[in-house]
Write a structure and sequence with these properties.
By secondary structure, the protein is an alpha/beta fold. It is built from 17 helices and eight strands. Helix 2 runs antiparallel to helix 5, helix 4 runs antiparallel to helix 5 and helix 11 packs antiparallel against helix 12.
Length: about 450
């Protein structure tokens, strides 16, 4: 179990904030209801409100650290809270009044006194919850930043070549500064109390004098980590430049043939896919109409991609480029690609162009979450350029993935290497909870509609 939770540990502040928000919602809603009506509320409504509150809060970014106290930051926090309150009350009022009207239910009295009283109660209680939650989250964000942003650096014990590789990789994640200690130097030459711990490139490089010293430091509680494990825990990815041999991957790799996580993943894929298909049907019809009206071309675009264990699959997307965009051959798209249509810019930035791939998920060729499938003609070049690239085909490809929600848009070999590092991490730590996190982060990306997050 321990190897599955580094990403949870690093997000402990978000989990704490979400748990406290859940408690605030349930406590205040129950307390106010009992105070006003002298009875206990329906716990299904209470818990639904609390779960909705924390999910939307996460999507809006209410649990992010408060970088500094400024008018702009306070305004953003206030606006997010107002939007959350509006959304909660809109959905509540729609369920109680709009839903009967929409389906023309004749036996519902629209201006029922009890419904109006409950509606007024819900508005008041949500405002109280919003005020308390906002005050707590703002102060918690400041405290969390002051605690977790005051971290000490690490000592790297190894060769200069590997040290340069680490520093290059940490720049991608805006990582922390690492002090380099040559494997020929004596560890006693530095004050280890000023550092978090020691990162070991290779335990075979440690001389007898230093191994004794490291052993003593370990007994004192100083953290001693091997390089790959440290990087994986710290940045939630596994760069291929730090992998010395396949055995390092094999010892982390889970069996994907008869793994209960894979079976749970498949059940979740089917349930969520049918739900998404139903909920997005009106959006899909609107997108289809807009694509056709823009240039009269085909609505759906298909491509051959590499799937599970290297098998070729056909995927479908809403067409976001001009007709015959690849008449000169397969090529990566880029952020400022002139082939992208006006409608295409919108559906790519929100990832709505991926919706037809739900059919591939239902058919079992893809998963909702997994490494993105690559085109065979492009993959052939990547296999000869990037070590361990074939490793990503050990799982079914996904519509979204750990790489897509953590790495910005890119269209180069270096970008592919960096995305692969996230894919390897995902394969090593695949779990239902991680899939849920990726799903929420994907929804957050769609909601924010960030152009720099689009992926082919």
């Amino acid at each position: 179990m321990k190897k599955n939770i580094p990403w949870i540990i690093s997000r402990r502040s978000v989990l704490i904030a979400a748990i406290v928000d859940f408690l605030i919602c349930t406590f205040l809603y129950n307390f106010i209801y009992q105070y006003e009506f002298e009875a206990s509320p329906n716990q299904l409504v209470t818990n639904t409100l609390a779960f909705f509150w924390i999910i939307v809060s996460y999507i809006l970014g209410r649990y992010e650290k408060t970088r500094k106290i400024s008018f702009a930051n306070i305004s953003k926090i206030f606006i997010k809270s107002i939007f959350l309150l509006f959304l909660c009350n809109f959905i509540y009022l729609f369920i109680n009044w709009g839903y009967p009207l929409l389906f023309l239910w004749n036996d519902v009295i629209i201006f029922n006194t009890d419904l109006k009283e409950l509606g007024n109660f819900f508005i008041r209680s949500s405002i109280y919850i919003g005020i308390v939650s906002t005050i707590f989250q703002f102060n918690f964000g400041i405290i969390n930043k002051n605690i977790y942003d005051q971290k000490k650096d690490w000592v790297f014990y190894g060769t200069n070549k590997k040290y340069r590789e680490i520093m290059k990789e940490t720049l991608i994640n805006r990582g922390e500064i690492i002090f380099w200690l040559s494997n020929k130097n004596n560890i006693k030459s530095i004050d280890i109390n000023n550092f978090q711990g020691i990162i070991i490139e290779d335990f075979l490089l440690i001389n007898q004098q230093n191994i004794d010293q490291i052993f003593k430091l370990k007994l004192k509680g100083i953290i001693i980590e091997d390089l790959l494990n440290w990087f994986e825990k710290k940045f939630h990815r596994v760069p291929t430049s730090l992998i010395e041999n396949k055995s390092q991957l094999l010892e982390k790799l889970k069996s994907t043939e008869n793994n209960y996580q894979i079976r749970v993943k498949r059940i979740g894929d089917l349930l969520i896919s049918f739900l998404i298909l139903f909920l997005t049907l009106p959006i899909s019809i609107l997108i289809s109409l807009c694509i056709y009206l823009e240039d009269g071309g085909p609505i759906i675009y298909s491509q051959i991609r590499t799937g599970y264990k290297g098998k070729k699959i056909r995927i479908y997307k809403f067409r976001s480029m001009i007709k015959n965009a690849e008449r000169t051959g397969a090529q990566w798209s880029n952020k400022e690609d002139k082939r992208i249509t006006n409608v295409g810019k919108i559906i790519r930035s929100t990832r709505l162009d991926e919706l037809p791939q739900i059919i591939s998920v239902i058919r079992g060729q893809m998963s909702l979450i997994g490494p993105r499938p690559e085109r065979p003609e492009i993959e052939e070049r990547l296999l000869n350029t990037i070590p361990y690239y074939k490793f990503r085909n050990i799982l079914k490809p996904g519509i979204s993935g750990w790489a897509q929600v953590n790495y910005p848009y890119g269209s180069s070999v270096d970008d592919t290497k960096n995305k692969l590092s996230y894919d390897i991490y995902y394969i090593n730590h695949i779990s239902f909870l991680l899939d849920i996190l990726i799903l929420f982060k994907t929804i957050k990306t769609v909601f924010n509609a960030r152009l720099n997050k689009q992926n082919n």
